[in-house]
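Today's session is about reading a structure prediction critically. Students often jump straight to the picture, but the first step is always the sequence itself: look for stretches that repeat, for charged clusters, for runs of hydrophobic residues. Only then move on to the predicted structure, which in these notes is written as discrete structure tokens rather than atom positions. Here is the chain we will use throughout the hour.
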Amino acid sequence: MSRWFRRIAIVGAVVGIAYAARSRLGEVSAIGRNATVAGMGARTGGRWAATQARKTFASAERRDELDAEFEMKTTEDVVASLGNLKGAMMKVGQMASYLDLGLPENVRMTLAQLQSDAPPMAPELAAQVIVEELGAAPDVVFAEWDPVPIASASIGQVHRAMTHDGQAVAVKVQYPGVGDAIEADLRTNDALFAGLRVLFPGIDTSTITEELRERLSEELDYELEARNQQYFADHFDGHPYIHVPPVLPELSTRRVMTSELVVGAKFDEVLEWRQSERNLIAETLFRFTFGSIYRLAAFNGDPHPGNYLFHEGGRITFLDFGLVKHFTDEDTELFESLIVNMVIEPNFAQFRHDIEAAGLLAKDAPFSNELIGEYFSYFYDFVLRDEEFTFDDDYSAAGVRAIFETGGEHGELKKVLNVPASFVVLQRINLGVMALFGQLNATQNWRRIASEVWPFVDAEPSTPIGEAIEQWGRTSGKRPDFQGL
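Below is the predicted structure for this chain, in token form.
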């Protein structure tokens, strides 16, 4: 059995016990959710013990079968439990589905249901939200309304509809009570982060919790999401490879958001495309991700496959701008300095100075500049050299281990590292996008593409996509801000 899955199962049981303890200590509003997670943990622990007992007298072949049964039954339980919980806990399951944690493929595919196909709310509930927010029933507000959602995830679900002037739209409806659910999850941060504090004593979990609370609270405000989405839609209007559906503000409120309906392939379909197409998709993802950070000082901090629709030739429609992180000038100057001192003009002493100033590493940490540079260079490996680099599952899994495993020569260093607020969402972006690239087996000269995207380098186009973007930038009047993006 995968050692990573075993760890996840154990952690799930521990979190369940911790949740139960919190509920007994008076977290009354969260008792129902706590009981669900606690029950999941108890079932996992009991199933694990039973499986181990059955394996005692089983043949090697039968032991493998028992392990596989345990994996699938536990994963199905996790999907059912977290899918029904919604909110912050479901997001944990979403991340596990696309981060390469060494999970068996059948387990990862089962978890993938949480990305866009979680259990939906009843049609009557969705209709009631429309009435409360837009003043009338869905079939009155819209010329046509499909009560069956086309996607359902952690905060809300999406319905097809047609406006009275004939425009096909996607209507995102928030789950009733999901705000209270997220608040309950965040109140239990002691349980959620207890394990992190043991593994990484240097981490200030209050910083992480506050950043997540801020971002998740913003995600509940669909009016804010509409402004964020329209911000990106305006900037990418007419872009040859990046599309963001424009919003219909007259049909959008705090709990309902209406935007252009777009149809495209899902990520699991893209994995069946030929490699050349997957490389183009990865290039566009790379340009949007890092170009948005450096050119717009903003990015959608929820980079999971359910938020993308794919089209041939490398074109992507980007959805869900509820969790957008806006970076300050200080943030982007720090990111630039880190790249300069790690990639462009390597200087480990200055790199150390940068991460100390950012609060990532204490100034008195007893580690050499070389050890620090060696550890962090892994996260820049794909742009360190002017040559093609292929992402694979091994690389993305190693990235997760590089952060969360505390053994080996860098183990003591990792224990004292902190996660400043500006790095919380950034780390999620890095892990999420790299995991997707690993599944795509994406191959490109990422150093050259990055040099186009980085405004402090601003290199000439190195690919056909880059050339088309430069042409768009000239004709749209968006150059130089969108050079490389």
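Discussion point for the tutorial: The chain has four domains: 3-116, 119-152+155-177+221-261, 178-216, 264-485.
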